[in-house]
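Researcher: Hi, I'm a grad student and pretty new to this. My advisor asked me to get structures for two proteins we've been looking at. I'm not sure of the right format, so I'll just paste the first sequence and hope you can take it from there.
Model: That works fine. Here's the first sequence with its structure tokens right after it:
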Amino acid sequence: MKIALLAPIAWRTPPRHYGPWEAIVSMLTEGLISRGMEVTLFATADSLTNGRLEAVCPTPYEETPGIDAKVWECLHIAHMFEQAGEFDIIHNHYDFLPLTYSRLVKTPMVTTIHGFSSPNILPVYHTYNNNNYYVSISIADRNPQLDYFANVYHGIDLDLFSFNDNPDDYLLYFGRIHPDKGTYDAIQIARRLGMRLVMAGIIQDQNYYQSKVAPYLDQNVVYVGSVGPESRSELLRGALALLHPIYFAEPFGLSVVEAMACGTPVVAYNRGSMAEVIKDGETGFLVLSFEEAVAAVKDITRLNRPACRDWVEERFSKERMVNDYLGVYQAILQ
């Protein structure tokens, strides 16, 4: 089977530090290759893969000052579609824009919907609903007006996340510094409990950071910046718990799964996919308010850390994700 995987070009594939969509594309690419598939990865020219790399954009636009993202995404997407006839199937991870090319080629296209950035993009998905194969990453993230071919939960490379049954005494916030992710709530939960909080992630909203995060930084509330793969497991496995007090409907939540893979339970506001990703009362706690979150952290030590690892091994391995996508491709092509 010849497969074209269209990655975003915001970050390198695989990402140096941040880049969840690119991380998934990389894992899927390498997993398909290990299963004997002929895979061409369309990504930035500095990307790394054991497959064939096709690139027109030299470096990621989020890492290259002055680059025009719109210009390079147009060239990137067109470059793939100009070669569409060489492939049995196209797998789009570039959101809605590639859908507008899909009727111009005969090769079937799978689109993994990694979340809806805005309701304003839905008209594109509606328009191309009948000639595309949409895959959701959680049932909670499905739009009722769209038809879905399958749901495929993300997987992670379990070898990169080592289990730890003897954590430190700190709480961890691991995600974008943004109101959607509830960074301020995480800080206040830790302060209420008198516990140390370590925060890691890119600053996506500078005003929010300056007003809601920076004023509270001290020896007990520490921001360590965006953390790459070499430090991620160490931070996650050492935490007593991961705080995920989100204010939006989380499409999936990679950091939640990564934490549980290390044995670290999660306290999350019950929004979006959280009820699908966390086994409430066993691998973490789903809560509805700040006060419930505080109470949940107080009760966190009664949870069994090996059960967190087992849960991820059973449901969220990269091998399971690759198998699921192979099943999607085969069902389309049969």
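Researcher: Oh nice, that was easy. Here's the second one.
Model: And its structure:
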Amino acid sequence: MIVETQQARFESLDLDCGETLRDVEVAYETYGQLNEDRSNAVLIEHAFTGDAHVAGVDHEGKPGWWANMVGPGKAFDTDHYFVICSNVLGGCRGTTGPASINPATGRPWGLRFPGITISDMVRLQKMLIDRLGIERLLTVTGGSMGGMQALEWAVAYPDSIESCIPIATTARHSAQQIAFNETGRQAIMADPDFAGGDFYGGPPPARGLAVARMVGHITYMSDESMREKFGRRLRNRDQVSFGFDIDFEVESYLRYRGAQFVGRFDANSYLYITKAMDYFDLTAGFPSLAASLERATCRFLVLSFTSDWLYPSYQSQEIVNALRARNHDVTYCELSPNYGHDAFLVDVGEQTEIIRGFLARCLRERRQAGVRA
């Protein structure tokens, strides 16, 4: 099916940095039908470089980034659930971000865009869900940065969600995770075309952004998956060049991924969103992670992957242990595909069965509770 991206506009949004953003736009897509009692709504949060196009195909024939998980008969079965996905605040795919026009100046915001957080992103999503007339979501889910947003929903709006499915994520970045993001940011800002963030109308900092993407993409794969996919195979040659052109297939792959990324993503959005991820700390203002999660009232399904070294399983286990310390209803599954962090996007067989059963239980019990009420 061809999916139409929709737009919602809000007069203002108060941000954690203390500023108020005016004339905020949100790009979002929906799939399936909202049932009569509005009990089947599912909010899917995208990861760092994703967007609202989670399923179906767009007018250019491009499939959604999680099309193998969202649709009829899939994990998030659109024959049963009403699925919503929006582009995050600070993004560059239809939602207000640094490439948007600043209404006060008539020019792109650039680095004059205010600093944003994960909670700002979720606050804007809550405004969208309210506008859609949905009082309580059946679940909020997402992988990586999407999982951070799902956790923020559980703590910030506990009465608004029935369940939460954080996948391959963390309650706060480690020093190593911040370091990878900072390396990407520095690559972008060191590009001569960056121009202090005011590159709109001229050449973008393509080289820096491509390098940032290359660094990021390495972290998404596991050592085993890279060995299987590339090994030390040479690219279109019988021996090494003894130069700095492409020798190895893995070099060719990373350069391709970097160049492809430049065509679809804004360098300033890269800076703002990675910084929001680094700022995210669910324990902020609380004595412990368990104390911060005490506000949550929903049931949880937490998924992690043994081969994921970007968001290793111990970070998901910390979330699970904190939830259990407060006697929350939580199910934890550690899966073992060898794809690394990308496993939540690529290897969906086990995920599908686990999530399908979990959602069916949530919907069934919600309906039973409604009948009793």
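Researcher: Is there anything I should tell my advisor about the second?
Model: You could mention this: Residues 6-173+280-372 form a domain with the Rossmann fold fold (CATH 3.40.50.1820).
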